[in-house]
Design brief:
The structure holds two protein chains of two kinds. By secondary structure, chain A is α/β, with parallel strands linked by helices. Chain A is built from eight helices and ten strands. Chain B is built from 13 helices and three strands; from the N terminus they run αααααααααβαβααβα. Classes of the chains: A alpha/beta, B mainly alpha.
Chain lengths: ~250, ~325
Amino acid sequence: MKDEGSYALSAMGVGRRYRRFWALRDCSFNLVEGRIAALVGPNGAGKTTLLTLIAGLAEPNQGKIEIFGRQMSGQDPDALADVGFLAQDHPLYRGFTVGELLRMGQLMNRRWDQRLALERLERLEIPLNRRAGTLSGGEQAQVSLAMALAKLPRLLVLDEPLASLDPLARREFLDRVAETSRVHGLTVVFSSHVVTELQQVCDYLLVLAGGRLRLAGPVAGLLADMPSGSGVEELVLSHLRGLQEEVA
Amino acid sequence: MNWLIWRQHRLAGASTVVVLLGVGIPLVMTGLAMRGTYDQLGLATCVGHTDARCSDLLGQFSEQYRGWGQQWLPWLNFVPGLLGALVGAPLVARELEQRTHLLAWTQGVTRRRWLATKLFVLVLAIAILGVAFTALISWWRWPLDQLEGSFQPNSFDFEGLVPTAYTLFAFALGTFMGVLLQRTVPAMAAVLSAFFAIRYPLMEVLVRPHLQPALQLTLSPADFVKQNILASNGSWVLDSGLQDASGRHLSGDEINHLVRQAFESGVSPPTWFQQHGYLRWMLYQPADRFWTFQAVEAAIFVAMAILAMVVTLNLVRRLT
């Protein structure tokens, strides 16, 4: 048993309300450092809401989120420094060149590894003098990831990072995330629709539906309870199907 | 952060400078011409007193230059509101629309500090430009101010402290509207209408004339020289009219009725009024209150600007 303070990420009864509508309720889980957690669920399940809370972009209406034992808050610069966030649709300042975006990151973060970002962009052949608005969706996602990694976060939060990538780039992206996690002990949480591709990298699964956490646990343990030969996809689907039958 | 602010606002900054040059260069040219004519006519000898020669010279000068001050300068009233709409309103609203706040607010700087730094730098830039441009306008208006004072709205609004205070308030209000409405275009519309409503009908028409109790002067209806002195010594005449022997102010209809009576009896109305014991009253703010009024009005707008910025900073905390 690990004591509570040593988790990379803890959600304790977290709830978030938009006016009267609860986008997320009673969400509790603990993530050990170094895990790569996949957050899956249908559209409108509350995935982005949960990731937004983890990144400190919003405060929960109920419960709290702790990152390495410290309460997450967008008002706390040290908490912000520990989290790298890649938003859905990877927004960038369209008029900025890639180089200017990196400079912005350098100026807005106390911890920043410029060389890491430069190497990564060089390998992907994304020139520094291109304006962000002229890059393809996949390239924009890569620039956003480079910025999130250059922050040297201890927890990386990615919202639908695979959506704008082609299959080859998805593989490369996931490999890269897995490698960074292995080398630096980085903890990763990412949301996705694409369940098939998760299995190769994620070792922890969070299934969200209707604003509630339906399943949370290490992939190996969860699969052990399934018929042999089934993968993460079957696991998620069987669980979501079970829910539908319950509702019906 | 300063580099980021410069990078995000260099276009707005350059445009502002171009606009100010576009207005400033003609101002310098006409200002030099106006001063030339002022010296050439020897108008300095007419400051503070009137006689036939002076009213003749003043007439010449007015014909040539007063139009500048009354027709063109008032267009500058739009500058603070436009700056509020073009720089203030998009400051946060455009980030929210383009979702770049998700990038900016997940770096190692809290959003509160991010916004506070932006506001500080932009307020400083606006204050510097505002003071410099106000100095230019005051230089331009100097000959006109010598002759007609600077307390009339047409000069008061463009001199001293208030233009800068208006601009700071418009900018802060624009930022506030942008955060409140979370959309750039509605925020632009909101700041333009709200700023003009506060600046003109509320402040200039309802509040400013009563910042200090106005003084009243009563004099003979036929004494034009004295009446003119009040206007030409730089006082701000708020209202004037006729009163009867008991001190009661006459209505417009009553005055029209009396004018008709005067014409029927073949006497010029001012003389007729004087003969029948009527007095002319003038309600005015004396010229030496100019700086008090400037300071009070500027303080009101700066206080409103600070309030808008504090509220905005607190609103931004709660945005998602």
